[in-house]
């Protein structure tokens, strides 16, 4: 998780220096938090890990409600802290600015990095930029409206690198999309404790990822600019200032009493019935030509968009 | 009790149940009220009961051994077709009923269904029936010329287990606890969000006495982790939560005990707050003392003893493996932080015991404040040998015989332990092996 042997110190929090790579320190004061990049890296990393675990929760045959609740509470705690920091806002804005017009449809990019993007390893966290888009995404995931049944599908795992872009995540409900994992080995390693079914599911998902369009006329999250070892789901955020427990909407809307929608999970799609293809078309048409304005970085996305539309329309 | 701490355990008996690894992971261990019987449940839905043999004449300085008394399949895997979910047959808890006649009764539960089992002995057989032969074939009625009275002849002891009641379909969420009431007529069962009260004779109905399910599941932030009836007052029970709180409820107050009579919570230490604070405060087990005056809770790093008369903090806190506090991030990553350890009192409430990793388990003497770490493993102890205390080195220098934190095996976890209600005999479940330790009798 953290590179071993890296000595980590807190510059300001008054914590003792960490001697192993594993310690997550107690939270320093608000004023100093955002200044400590290692703290925010660790926090980000913890957030990523938690979200992955939540996705897996939804995939387990026997989802453990206690564990899900505890992880979700941790996620919310991080989210609240990031909101207080203003980090959340920064990321939202950075993303909005950097992205193609966000009210375009097929939302989120899936973060699947080529391994050679490990060259980025040396970079410090930076806000997500359009350049990142060009570095080799595979498309998408379609993201659901927050009110709809959760679409948590899958995300493949990889060891989380500390090189995170803290700007990658937006506030709001967390919605994961499927993604293709190029490092299946890593995925399996990560998952070996998990139920064996998870692995199968994720491999299936990778075939089915290109999926029905679901409506997504909101800010969508782009993957962060982490290095290639990491594969991660994308997040979909509704609004910058999270209402109480927006993340839990998706997380628990299908926990009771049916813990999750197996079909959804296995096919890597969101609960399609809630949103038919016609809704999607409507949404499409509601976005003016500006949605398709030419930014070169959006080109590839548009192709994917067409591809998806074809699937939806069944042509 | 003290002999465990002053003179390490004398005898190690290891009971290996079978070779089928996955099915045999022991998931619960429980002595009955007299301590004569020890029940274990495993992940494959089986229950194995051990019985204490009388002391042998050859070895008068030892207590008798525990040998297998009965084995039966309590729960089978099921499939919930409505939700497309498999229901595990793993036995989550076993609780004995007090013995009222020659037979023994116990409750065993998996995630969804509770069963009452009757375990009875048969050591006599009737012979000399009129209408059938010894092998059971019907005799030709015309051949019967005289009547005889069947006589009871001794036979090899046979222990039979039969399900007497099945309490099903009352829990939407996974059952984590069952507890027999002191009235010996009712019992409670708790899942993640609800607690039900049953009568042992009635299987088609139960009373819901606690319901913490929010109207909107999106608002769910807390679940029930354990529940227990008070050992003496049949109207009192407690339940613990994932936020580190314990609520004591009185069933006389209202039909639905959503409002607690007492609320136990220790204020958080702000200096040690981290993102993992809530997770490690989640209570995995709660047990009343035999006296009924105290209760003990187990969270991830510590065991706390509470006086029922004081709600704002525990009276005693024991650190089980504080050296893990700096490893919480890794333990979160590999999910060990969610392990649910149990704890138990000894018969006189003077000592408590709980498990840890690397097959270590810990005992604390409440009076002398001494503690000891022991290991349940074949490698480290020969049968009939004394156990050696173990130590985890936390500082830089590791002494001989100490083990460093990084060498601990987190797959070897002791989650389930039980203490004989009267004697210094303990049962420790290490994955698929059961260890029974007794102290020396001098």
What does this structure look like?
The complex is a heterodimer of chains A (315) and B (442). Chain A has helices at residues 30-33, 37-59, 65-85, 87-98, 130-133, 184-191, 196-208, 246-252, 262-267, 277-286, 296-313; strands at 111-112, 231-232. Chain A is mainly alpha-helical and 315 residues long. Chain A has a two-stranded antiparallel sheet with strand order 1-2. In chain A, helix 2 packs antiparallel against helix 3 (65-85). Residues 9-23, 100-244 and 254-297 of chain A have low confidence and may be disordered. By secondary structure, chain B is mainly beta. Chain B has three helices and 32 strands. Chain B has helices at 2-6, 277-281, 328-333, and strands at 11-16, 26-31, 37-42, 46-52, 66-73, 78-80, 85-87, 93-96, 104-109, 114-127, 151-167, 175-180, 186-191, 194-199, 207-211, 224-229, 236-241, 246-250, 262-264, 285-288, 294-298, 302-307, 316-319, 343-345, 351-355, 360-365, 371-375, 392-393, 403-404, 416-419, 425-430, 433-438. Chain B has a four-stranded antiparallel beta sheet with strand order 1-32-31-30, with no helix packed on it. In chain B, strands 2-3-4-5 form a four-stranded antiparallel beta sheet, with no helix packed on it. A four-stranded antiparallel beta sheet of chain B has the order 8-9-10-11, with no helix packed on it. In chain B, a hairpin with a 6-residue loop joins strand 16 and strand 17. The chains are: A mainly alpha (315), B mainly beta (442). Chain A binds chain B through residues 1-2, 18, 20, 22-27, 42-43, 46, 49, 53, 61-62, 64-67, 69-70, 72-74, 77-78, 193, 244-245, 248-249, 251-253, 255-259, 262, and chain B through 82-86, 88, 111, 172-174, 192-193, 213, 217-223, 225, 242, 271-276, 278-279, 282, 326-330, 332-335, 338. Chain B: This is Serine/threonine-protein phosphatase 2A 55 kDa regulatory subunit B. Chain B: PP2A consists of a common heterodimeric core enzyme, composed of a 36 kDa catalytic subunit (subunit C) and a 65 kDa constant regulatory subunit (PR65 or subunit A), that associates with a variety of regulatory subunits. Chain B: GO terms for molecular function: protein phosphatase regulator activity. Chain B: InterPro entries: PP2A_PR55, PP2A_PR55_CS, WD40/YVTN_repeat-like_dom_sf, WD40_repeat_dom_sf, WD40_rpt.
